[in-house]
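Quick one, probably user error.
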């Protein structure tokens, strides 16, 4: 993987990025600024605010409040208190053209590249989904299985991983989970729906490890660490393949999803599947073909972005927005429909989260958490990687993995770690796989449980944990073994 010019340059590069709008503006006065001292009582005050926010996010449903409102209120409260205590730098920002720009102190703390990637990718997926491409692929796989439950589990499982990697976990779970319910009902196999939906929910978080844009923690941590799209894929792909296969084998055994054996059963299932029409959801053959081409070009451009002229400077956020607006040409008179479909709760959640994390940095809260990480690093390279993997997974299982990824990413960056350090991958693997331990560990498992309830399948919080725990432990053990092997080989 790509290394930075020198280990010592990493803290400076990150500090400039976090304070000055992701390297768009640069004030040399900050470059040599020593870390300011903060009274320990103030640090613990903001630590309490951070823990209170995490607790509120964990009980988001009970509070009947969206996550953007929770983080927004805590971010504004933190800004007010930090300003009153004179913790934040105020004044003009000088850019590379020596122009003095007056920006509110909370604006440079927002990672606008992450925001651009999320908006652009969401718009692109929303537009291309209108072509019927995803439903076409799903139905084709259903026909390929000939109605055999074991084959259907394998095909849908692999499709879940692929969709989670190319789209996002929630979109993948909605598309495949909905189709699973219809397919199993037509095949008279609705009794297997619980096993299918739970397995698909778990696989979305494995698929979320495949590429840099597969999940939000990947985007945040990869962006901070400086991991390229191609480097991320090459490192994560072997583990995703192994973990996916192990999960499917275990699911078939645990949920007793057996293959069809009798000729009568095989013929009946094949006849039922033959009635599926994959072309039914394609409104335009031309748009369908264009969507395939655009999707291929998007993945290719993301893969080569770091070496392409101009795009290497503009970043992945620009690439995502570029393809989104190219796709929107097809619906040029109805673009407002897609703008309304953007998940503004998620966007403002990120904006306010970055604002709050920036305040926490000035209040030395991240330095306090970093002290605990330093003690983990003293265990030795491999032991510290495994400790970070399991601790981040456990933390992700009970709270949102997005603020966890943002916080740990910022702390690791301040330590000057190179982009090929296993500690980055420990957090990436832990933040994604930890979502499989509880039903609130990730948005896609929440969707899976919701689909179960719609199908009148009752599964409590403890019931989910009881069924999913063995899968999560298996995946984390495989991740531990994978990191150990990589450390030995390289």
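Nope, works fine. Designed sequence:
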């Amino acid at each position: 993987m790509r290394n930075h010019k020198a280990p010592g340059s990493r803290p400076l590069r990150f500090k400039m990025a976090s304070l000055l709008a992701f390297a768009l503006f640069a004030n040399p006065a900050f470059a040599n600024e020593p870390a300011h001292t903060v009274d320990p009582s103030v640090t613990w005050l903001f630590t309490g605010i951070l823990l209170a926010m995490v607790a509120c996010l964990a009980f988001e449903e009970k509070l009947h409040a969206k996550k953007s409102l929770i983080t927004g209120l805590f971010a504004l409260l933190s800004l007010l208190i930090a300003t009153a205590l004179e913790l934040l730098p105020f004044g003009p920002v000088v850019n590379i053209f020596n122009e003095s720009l007056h920006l509110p102190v909370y604006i440079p703390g927002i990672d606008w590249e992450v925001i651009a990637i999320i908006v652009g990718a969401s718009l692109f997926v929303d537009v291309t989904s209108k072509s019927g491409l995803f439903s076409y692929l799903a139905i084709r796989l259903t026909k390929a299985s000939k109605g055999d439950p074991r084959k259907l589990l394998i095909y849908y499982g692999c499709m879940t991983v692929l969709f989670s990697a190319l789209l996002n976990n929630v979109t993948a779970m909605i598309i495949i989970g909905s189709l699973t319910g219809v397919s199993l009902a037509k095949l008279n196999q609705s009794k297997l729906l619980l096993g299918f939906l739970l397995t698909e929910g778990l696989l979305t978080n494995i698929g979320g490890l495949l590429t840099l844009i597969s999940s939000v923690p990947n985007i945040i941590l990869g962006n901070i660490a400086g991991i390229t799209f191609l480097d991320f894929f090459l490192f994560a792909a072997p583990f995703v393949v192994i973990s996916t296969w192990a999960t499917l084998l275990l699911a078939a055994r645990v949920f007793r999803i057996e293959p069809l054996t009798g000729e009568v059963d095989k013929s009946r299932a094949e006849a039922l599947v033959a009635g599926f029409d994959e072309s039914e959801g394609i409104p335009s053959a031309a748009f369908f073909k264009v969507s395939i081409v655009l999707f291929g070009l998007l993945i290719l451009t993301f893969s080569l972005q770091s070496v392409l002229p101009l795009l290497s400077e503009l970043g992945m956020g620009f690439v995502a927005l570029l393809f989104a607006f190219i796709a929107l040409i097809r619906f040029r008179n109805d673009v407002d429909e897609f703008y309304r479909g953007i998940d503004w709760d998620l966007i403002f959640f990120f904006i306010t989260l970055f604002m709050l994390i920036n305040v926490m940095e000035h209040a030395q809260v991240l330095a306090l958490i970093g002290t605990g990480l330093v003690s983990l690093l003293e265990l030795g390279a491999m032991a510290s990687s495994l400790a970070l993997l399991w601790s981040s997974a456990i933390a992700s299982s009970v709270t949102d993995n997005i603020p966890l990824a943002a916080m740990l990413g910022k702390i690791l960056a301040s330590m000057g770690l190179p982009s090929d350090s296993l500690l980055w991958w420990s957090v990436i693997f832990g933040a994604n796989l930890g979502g499989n331990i509880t039903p609130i560990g990730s948005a896609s498992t929440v969707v899976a449980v919701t689909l179960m309830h719609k199908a009148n399948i009752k599964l409590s919080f403890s019931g989910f944990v009881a069924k999913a725990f063995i899968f999560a432990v298996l995946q984390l053990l495989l991740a531990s073994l994978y990191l150990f092997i990589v450390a030995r080989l390289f």
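The first helix runs from residue 9 to 19.
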